[in-house]
Amino acid sequence: MSSVLIIGDTMRNPEMRHEVPIGIPDPFLYAEVDGRRIVAISSMEAIRVEGLGTGLEVHTFEEYGADELRRTHRDRHAFARELIVRAVKGLGIEKAAVPGKFPVQHSDAIREAGVELVVDQQHFDERRRRKSGHELEGIRRAQKAAEAGVATARELLARAERANGTLKLDGKPLTCELMKEHVQGAFLAHGAIAEEMILSHGAQTAVGHDMGSGQIAADDVVMLDLFPVDLESGCFADLTRTVAFGEIPEELKTWHALCREALDLVSAEVRPGVHGSELHRLVSEFFSDRGFPTILTKPDGEVLTDGFYHGLGHGVGLEVHEAPSLGIIGEELVPGDVITLEPGLYRQGFGGVRVEDLLLVTDDGYERLTDCPYELEL
Hints:
Helices cover 33% and strands 24% of the residues. It contains ten helices and 21 strands. The protein is elongated and about 70 Å long.
């Protein structure tokens, strides 16, 4: 049996964070060899990893000649490469499975040393799908932060005053940027943070990943797609709600009702063994039967910008987008998956509606992790 090998830090590398569940900013080595789960790491981090109590066998880089290499190398990259090779050889690794983002400089050096590396991203995706208790707790906290962000945004919009076709809050123009500041504050109060969020308005809402900018109008639609990360676990949540106020076009009201219906329809089908592509097909056919274009029903080669033009959802965990996929290409659901369902309808130059819930796949169905009002009208 080949070994497993990961090199990276736990702040940016989800495969490493899954195995070593604390924040470590500098790269180190994780390996599985003959049933042993091993970490080779700097001495300043070793005590933290040992304190996790997760059965990891911890070695410091000094065991592999780090002190000698520091004295003889003047190139820190060459130092890092040789140190990793010494650790890999010292652990007796002859062949190992590695993730797709395994660092090239280390893979070249390790292969030159006679060790066979096999890229197997699917293996690492699959082992992360069944969330650990620590990860699931983090996802739940992050989702509470997302829900607090939606509540904060709705409260700001409710307090805003109409002024010459725009909205003002406490005498200041109400902009997407100002709302994001308040939403970020709600995240932080719940132990989470977001590098970015979608808080868009008007015609911007027709562009699925337009992050949003500018002043909000007195009669407008606002899309909130929030995906904060829990600071303790490094796990994400994902939540979308659409809010409209003032003179709301009937078209938006109809779209929102259909998205809600589609969400209820597909949620009822979530269980282990169901294929993500089948869930996507179900929603695509629901929208297609009502006259909307979808990526499942459009002609090959056509670029779709209106209707239901994206996948139904995706897995969420140590990345905001991870396995399983719920699109035309998908995977079969398994217990422990955390997935989003996010039906949406859009028309370019006009606007869009999307609703999104987070679900945990259980042994016989699902648990909805989202507890947030759906109402379109403020």
